[in-house]
Amino acid sequence: MEVMVDRIAGRARERCGDDVTAERLGYQTRVVEAELFAPAREAAGWMADALRERMAGGAGEAEAIEALSAELADAEPEGKPAPDDERAASWRVPGPGGHVRHFVCLRAAPGRKREFLYGFFRRCCEEALASRRESA
Fold first, then answer.
1. Can you tell me the distance from the alpha carbon of 46 to that of 35, in angstroms, rounded to the nearest whole number?
2. What pLDDT shows up at residue 90?
3. Residues contacting 82, CB < 8 A, separation 6+
4. How do residues 87-128 score in pLDDT, each as one tens digit?
5. What is the pLDDT of residue 135?
6. 96 φ/ψ angles, rounded to the nearest 5 degrees
7. How far is the C-alpha of 94 from the C-alpha of 56, rounded, in Å?
8. Helix (H, G, I), strand (E, B) or coil at 74
9. What digits encode the pLDDT tens for the residues 34-71?
10. Total structural domains in the chain?
């Protein structure tokens, strides 16, 4: 697992270039996951549903993405998330799982988990909406 964590964190950092922030590292981590893992190329359908519900209530797309990403990042436990922890949306996104994402965050953005996950979930939301558009 350590090799996988190092690989993901390193590639995410490379993709950030000079713009290395915890939020951007989280965002790029999801991009790297999709490059490395076939399951991570699948969008989280439940996210698309949550976003569409917010937009049906009057929120714009950007506002819905921002709000859902912040809500999910805030709800995530500070420590290593358990797979059955309902607060841990990092486990419900297709890919390597919540533990890998937790350790990538510790490696890439220590002490900045909320910001890291906000960027991660923002990318997941964009994927979910794009996937729904393609299938419509």
1. 22
2. 96
3. 88
4. 999 999 999 999 999 999 999 999 999 999 999 999 999 999
5. 64
6. -75, -10
7. 25
8. helix
9. 999 999 999 999 999 999 999 999 999 999 999 999 99
10. 1
Which contacts of 14-22 are long-range, i.e. CB under 8 A and separated by 24 or more positions?
Answer: 21/115, 21/119, 22/108, 22/109, 22/112, 22/115, 22/116, 22/119
- Domain span at residue 38 reads 2-135
At residue 42, the pLDDT reads 93
Burial state string for 111-128 with b = 16 or more CB within 10 A and e = fewer than 16: ebbbbbbbbbbbbbbbbb
Phi, psi dihedrals of residue 10, rounded to the nearest 5°: -65, -45
Name which of 72, 20, 12, 60 is nearest 40 in CA terms: 12
User: What's the whole-model pTM score?
Assistant: 0.95
Q: What is the torsion angle, in degrees rounded to the nearest 10, for the CA atoms of residue 51, residue 128, residue 84 and residue 37?
A: -170
DSSP H helices in 1-136: 2-16, 22-36, 45-56, 61-75, 98-108, 113-135
Give how far Cα 83 sits from Cα of 10, 24, 66, 97, 98, Å: 25, 25, 25, 8, 7
CA distance 25 to 10: 10
Which three-class secondary structure state does DSSP give residue 10? Answer: helix
